[in-house]
Write a structure and sequence with these properties.
about 240 residues, alpha/beta, Rossmann fold, 2 domains, nine-stranded mixed beta sheet, two-stranded antiparallel ribbon
Length: about 240
């Protein structure tokens, strides 16, 4: 009987040692989580793209520890970087060449996530109307002067507005973003209130698309937004949401 107990004990110890050795070859569930690659495109006029998009926003996004950001302001490199990307963030207002436009179109039409930030929500490219129609859902042609204005969350149940105060004020350019009636439509999540009239404009929204998740955040002129907790929360929430295709 003692010999049988000893054999069972030895076998159990062997199995435990074997399993420990095998498990040691594999990372834990948390560490095995796939890191999503993000291409953040900047560059153009009227904004400090390097400081607030390449440095600040990239740092904010990578604080999630599940995203790696590749920033470029060389738009000719877009086709190359998109081959290795899971999410595209456009914050640029500089011209994009034909190959870049084609690469972005292919990327989004395959169902990959797209996030459009502040400068990318303008009518930047007269030679690419499909961008505003299909991806921005409209756009801006003017903005109010830089000043403090109130923002109101109008859909607090959406993942992008999670943990964002229902009202908050910040200094920024209030873009007069207008949805295009010919587009597929947008879902407004937060609005900015004009300081001069009773008008309000979408500042955070999603764009309806049959394949991809697309979101827009029109806030983000300089440090008065990029360093604010409300903006950072909206940015990280939006990155998570568009990446979940």
């Amino acid at each position: 009987m003692d010999g049988m107990v000893n054999r069972k004990l030895i076998l159990s110890l062997f199995v435990c040692s074997f399993l420990s050795a095998v498990m040691g070859l594999y990372p834990t569930v948390a560490s095995a989580q796939k890191t999503a690659n993000i291409l953040l495109v900047g560059g153009g006029a009227s904004h400090d793209f390097d400081r607030w998009y390449r440095q600040e926003d990239a740092k904010t996004i990578e604080s999630l520890h599940s995203f790696q950001v590749q920033y470029t302001d060389h738009v000719d490199s877009i086709p190359f970087y998109l081959k290795h990307s899971d999410v595209l963030i456009l914050s640029n207002n500089q011209p994009i060449g034909d190959e870049g436009k084609k690469a972005i179109t292919r990327f989004v039409e395959k169902g990959n996530g797209l996030l459009l930030l502040h400068p990318g929500l303008w009518y930047n490219w007269a030679d690419w109307p499909e961008y505003n129609l299909n991806y921005a859902g409209g756009g801006s042609k003017s903005h109010e002067e830089y000043r403090v204005f109130k923002n109101c969350v109008v859909n607090s149940t959406h993942p992008i507005t999670k943990d964002v105060p229902l009202t908050f004020e910040l200094a920024d350019e209030l873009y007069r973003y207008m949805p295009d009636p010919e587009a597929r439509g947008i879902e407004v999540l937060a609005i900015g209130m004009s300081m001069h009239t009773d008008e309000f404009y979408p500042v955070v929204f999603t764009v309806k698309h049959p394949k991809a998740r697309i979101a827009g955040i029109s806030l983000g002129h300089d440090e008065k937004s990029h360093t604010r907790d409300e903006y950072k929360t909206l940015l990280t929430n939006a990155v998570r949401w568009v990446s979940e295709n």
